[in-house]
Amino acid sequence: MEKVLVTGGCGFIGSHIVDLLIDQGYEVIVVDNLRTGNINNINVNKVKFYEMSILDEKLTEVFEKHQPHYVIHQAAQVSVSESIVDIMQDEEINIRGSLNVIENAVKYNAQKVIFASSAAVYGTPEYLPVDTNHVVEPLAPYGVSKYTVERYLRMFKKLHGLDYTILRYANVYGPRQDAKGEGGVVAIFADKITTQEELTIDGDGEQTRDFVYVTDVAKANVKALKSGDNRILNVSREEKVSVNELYKIMAELSSYSKEPNYGPERKGDIKHSILSNGETIKELNWKPDVELPAGLKHTLESIKTS
Q1: What are the Cα distances from residue 102, in Å, to 45, 91, 161, 176?
Q2: Any long-range contacts for 40-46 (C-beta under 8 Å, 24+ apart)?
Q3: Is 173 a catalytic residue?
């Protein structure tokens, strides 16, 4: 049985990856410090779980004990705004923590690392949809730290022969996403709609995003174990949706009748962001299956039942 170590495996995206790996018969090892992850997101009886930071020196003991064939590296400081406020913490977790993971992958002969990167590496799009040939010009430390790890992975391939696939995520949404902190707009709206509170849209709401459902992201990660070697790939629906449209769909799905408030634009916010996914569909033999209304319905229902 092949072994996969998932860092951040109790988190929003990581836990869905863990579910899929279990379903597909992999032996799963999860490392998560539970700072933002939740142990209840995974079936602890079906994984080997270690409550541990990716910065911990004892991470090497986990690698030594289990000798994973693959590493899916999801653990990260994921808040763009927090990366600006505390750049050193962002660097420590996202760069040094990642290096601890990658070095151990090399030391204990893992075949491949799948790395969760972000659309944040591109910065302000020069054209849409953004493909992986687009210039990299991140606007915040978070994007810089993600891109730095991408460069390290490319270097580790040359120095040590460690294969990788880098997945740059669009706006991921779905069950288990926390509305607090840097929760995506879907999670924030879902939380307000479920509690019948008023919600605020930043700016005029005409800014567009590319929303991809979390199980589709999980599938891309698991597909990348066996394909897309040494490639950088976008994970997206390549679908342009404005925040106003998003609000309208969610309100209709839940009979929410409050009109939204409109606040100031968020500083440094990109107006339009859509990622090209053609390369990913071809390389990973993958496609995003969950359409936005269905994904939003699942998300809203998951909040009501939690």
Answers
A1: 27, 15, 12, 27
A2: 41/10, 41/11, 41/12, 41/15, 41/176, 42/9, 42/10, 42/15, 42/18, 43/19, 46/22
A3: no
Helix (H, G, I), strand (E, B) or coil at 73: strand
pTM comes to 0.97
Sole residue written with tokens 């002969």: 109
Question: Vertex 303, ends 301 and 306: CA angle to 5°?
Answer: 110
Averaged pLDDT score across all residues of the chain: 96
Same domain, 142 and 99: yes
* Residues above pLDDT 70, as percent of the chain: 98
**Largest Cα–Cα distance of the chain, in whole Å?**
58
Query: What's 192's domain CATH number?
Result: 3.90.25.10
H or E segment at 202? strand 200-202
Q: Which domain holds residue 36?
A: 3-172+213-236
- Reading the block at residue 201, the tokens are 């849209």
The pLDDT score that the predictor gives to residue 266 is 80
In this predicted structure, the answer to whether residue 181 has a pLDDT above a threshold of 70 is no
70, 142, 247, 256: which one is catalytic?
142
H-only helix segments in 180-236? 185-194, 214-223
Can you tell me the distance from the alpha carbon of 76 to that of 37, in angstroms, rounded to the nearest whole number?
11
Beta-bridge partners for 163: 112
